Automatic annotation (TrEMBL):
Segments of this protein annotated with the region Disordered: 62-89
Protein name as it appears in the record: Ubiquinol oxidase
EC numbers for this chain: 1.10.3.11
Transmembrane segments: none
One of the record's GO cellular component terms: respiratory chain complex
Subcellular location: Mitochondrion inner membrane
Gene Ontology MF: a single term: ubiquinol:oxygen oxidoreductase activity
Catalysis performed (reactions): 2 a ubiquinol + O2 = 2 a ubiquinone + 2 H2O
Organism per entry: Eucalyptus globulus (Tasmanian blue gum)
Protein topology in the membrane: Multi-pass membrane protein
Length: 343
């Protein structure tokens, strides 16, 4: 009874709403189609009722035609087709807005399975980079940065010990923050001051994205437990804000801290590789995402993945120490071309 009243109220609301606007009709029909498909898929009276109400409010004045069996079958065939196109992921409805991803293939002609990165963002890691380079702390702020990072390593060593997979996964959740914070603040500065950033916005955001890809790779190898997820939440809350304030106060110190954090990351991945070489950690096949992202051979292993990630960390170390040095010399980042695409 009350559902009938609600329906007629919704119908009159929709009818009224559509009187003035002819342009929304097509959109309404598209949304309607989507919800019809959803309506058909979802069992349960309550959720169906909610969907029905949403469908009424989103549709045009025209009463929807009943969904016959044939239409349902053709819709599910289309869904299957879409599913195949999206590498078996969630179904993406054809877009009213005209947005669809063109067919992308690998060099060997096979279909590109990733939505999170594209073939032109992949690269071969430069493994010739010097892993031993170290910025010797001389000034007070350098010593402060160095000691802070060394101090942060103590609880990390105690918590993770030699569980390097877990350690790497957790640390990557932190490592992807500074680039985003620095990039965001430089972006805002560029807007505020009506000036170019010298490529540094892009360079720092590239670093953040690269670190996030390290994390996306590590989660294929190690599944985080509930308390580790909780730890990530708290650490992110604290670290994001602390780094944000630090970057506002002293970008020189902020980049130096990251430079030293990256030196520690190189050390951690070197220890990880030692355990793989000794057999303490099994040298399992590389995850598919890593093979495509770093253009690794199909038979690449965990050892290859850790080797390229370590090379990335060495590049981040250099970029951040370089940025800190620019500030130390009293110059601005925008006046020193950023190392774009530097992996
Ligand atoms: Fe990383
Ligand atoms: Fe890094």
């Amino acid at each position: 009874m009350s559902q009938g009243v609600l329906r007629s109220l919704a119908r009159s609301f929709v009818n009224g709403g559509n009187r003035g606007g002819g342009g929304g009709g097509g959109g309404g029909r598209y949304v309607l189609g989507t919800f019809e498909a959803e309506f058909g898929r979802r069992p349960g009276g309550v959720s169906c009722g909610v969907i029905f109400a949403r469908r009424m409010l989103s549709s045009s004045a025209t009463e929807p035609a009943p969904i016959d069996k044939e239409k349902k079958q053709s819709a599910s065939a289309e869904e299957e087709e879409e599913k195949k196109k999206n590498g078996g992921g969630a179904v993406v409805p054809s877009s009213y807005w005209g947005i669809s991803r063109p067919k992308i293939t690998r060099e060997d002609g096979t279909e590109w399975p990733w939505n999170c990165f594209m073939p032109w963002e992949t690269y071969r890691a430069d493994l010739s980079i010097d892993l031993e380079k170290h910025h010797a702390p001389k000034t007070f702020s350098d010593k402060f940065a160095y000691r802070t990072v060394k101090l942060l390593r103590v609880p990390t060593d105690i918590f993770f010990q030699r569980r390097y997979g877990c350690r790497a996964m957790m640390l990557e959740t932190v490592a992807a923050v500074p680039g985003m914070v620095g990039g965001m603040l430089l972006h805002l500065r560029s807007l505020r001051k009506f000036e170019h950033s010298g490529g540094w916005v892009k360079a720092l955001l590239e670093e953040a994205e690269n670190e996030r890809m390290h994390l996306m790779t590590m989660v294929e190898l190690v599944k985080p437990k509930w308390y580790e997820r909780l730890l990530v939440l708290s650490v992110q809350g604290v670290f994001f804000n602390a780094y944000f304030v630090l970057y506002l106060l002293s970008p020189k110190l902020a980049h130096r801290v990251v430079g030293y954090l990256e030196e520690e990351a190189i050390h951690s991945y070197t220890e990880y590789l030692k355990d793989i070489n000794s057999g303490a950690i099994e040298n399992i096949p590389a995850p598919a995402i890593a093979i495509d992202y770093w253009r690794l051979p199909k038979d690449a292993t965990l050892k290859d993945v850790i080797t390229v990630i370590r090379a990335d960390e060495a590049h981040h170390r250099d970029v951040n120490h370089f940025a800190s040095d620019i500030h130390f010399q009293g110059r601005k980042l925008k006046d020193s071309p950023a190392p774009l695409g530097y992996h």
